[in-house]
Design brief:
With 513 residues, the protein is α+β, with helices and mostly antiparallel strands. The protein contains six helices and 25 strands. It has four domains: 107 residues, Macroglobulin (MG2) domain (Immunoglobulin-like), CATH 2.60.40.1930; 77 residues; 133 residues, Sandwich (Immunoglobulin-like), CATH 2.60.40; 121 residues, Macroglobulin (MG2) domain (Immunoglobulin-like). Helices cover 19% and strands 35% of the residues.
Length: 513
Amino acid sequence: MRLFGAVATITAIVLVSSAHIGSPDAWYEGSAGPYHAVIQVATPGVVPGVATVYARLKSPDGKPATGVEVTIQVNRFDALATAPPPELASPVEAEPGLYSGPLWVMAGGSNGVTVSVRGPLGAGRAVVPVVVVANRRLELDPKLGGVLTVVGLFLFVGLVTIVGAAVRESSLPPGAVPDARQRWKARTAMAVCTAIVALALFGGSRWWNSEDADFRSSIYKPLSATATIESVASRPALDLKISDSVWVHRSDTAWLRTRNVSRWSPLIPDHGKLIHVFMIREPDLQAFAHLHPPTSDSVRFISALPSLPAGTYRVYGDIVHESGFAQTVSTRIELATPVSAAEPATDADDASRFVEAPPNGERSVLEDGSTMTLDRSGGQFVAGKGTMLRFNVTGSDGRPLTLEPYIGMAGHAVVTRDDGSVFIHLHPAGTISMASQMALAMRQPGDTVPGKLGQRMNAAGAIYAAGEVAGNGVVTFPYAFPQPGRYHAWVQVKHAGRILTGAFAFEVQPAAR
């Protein structure tokens, strides 16, 4: 199923959206008042820079919403009073119900893109959290550098020559020959000009290097983390620690000031969990776990391990800050011996899956004998092309399985490229964090004290809102694969109080040129 006819190419500086690894764009599926909306925010290549917003709108009857006015607006999480005016999004030709428009993003960090719709059915809006940060620096092309050096030398010699000629001959009548004094004055002027230009170039170099150093320091670096296997109540447990000094010393204002770093805002629960931890065994990717360890200090997260085979595991931790900034910390861990967990899990929503045969194809047999199928009716997956990952769950009798909400959603999916360069935690609502969305929607100008907004969100119970669960055994996830290659996906649903995990592997084709 094609969602968008045009998807922006990832540009020079890759930006992180929702801070997942390697997935630059933000995706949202949900309501915008009376309209159903699928929204993609293609982030810019620089900050400030221009993002492109695509919004596909449908009426309640499923028909494309035409004849509506769509406006888009971006605002940094802490700048509610200075929001720029909304921009008008234009209908995309030959794509009924699809609207798009450019949008300047003036500040990095946690931003909210608001899409407002007004039409015959009424008005509505959707807030899409977008984390905008540069995560790499491009080097100057040596060939371009060589060309610029030659041009610069030519201009430098030309300037010095012009100054010398002007001092030597500008005051002479036509045809007169400069004497020794004028030639000396010309040489002196050329020497002074050379010194001034050299000093200007030196100062410019120092300024450029300073700006480059500032840019290097501003490049986004996820909080560092470590993981160990501990014994807790005679059971093996995962001890995940956010070890980054900036986080450990986040309340020490003097420490932060001396190092010229900003303070991270507190963590807030996403779907009722302060952290979502994923373990994926490498290189075969046959073992998977989804854990929700508790914490007493937001630094150490300890969870009893579920049943898992031995091996090396990638460990990812999804966290959300009160500012709406969502990020993924990652590390690796070695599980020396297999774990057989017979006791209750640390959290009732913890689950794991080990598939003895490497997952492949479009069909996965679940733990209770039911079947999950990846719908490939839309054809091959293509990098950069928006798609709808659709999974059908049927019982052993072939009938659609009745699904229940799992951690507040119809389902959860984890998608990763086999080499680990892409990792994304998807919901039916898209790539966004629901906690980030609520933080941006509920923030008020007076929310300047850390923890104040989080307390209000907890009191309102906003983080625990559940998504709708279709009764036909279908769960869908909007997404666009950022690069071609081989991917694995784990899709989790809940039926009859039991968490079921489907495992899939598939190829994503490169975009046509």
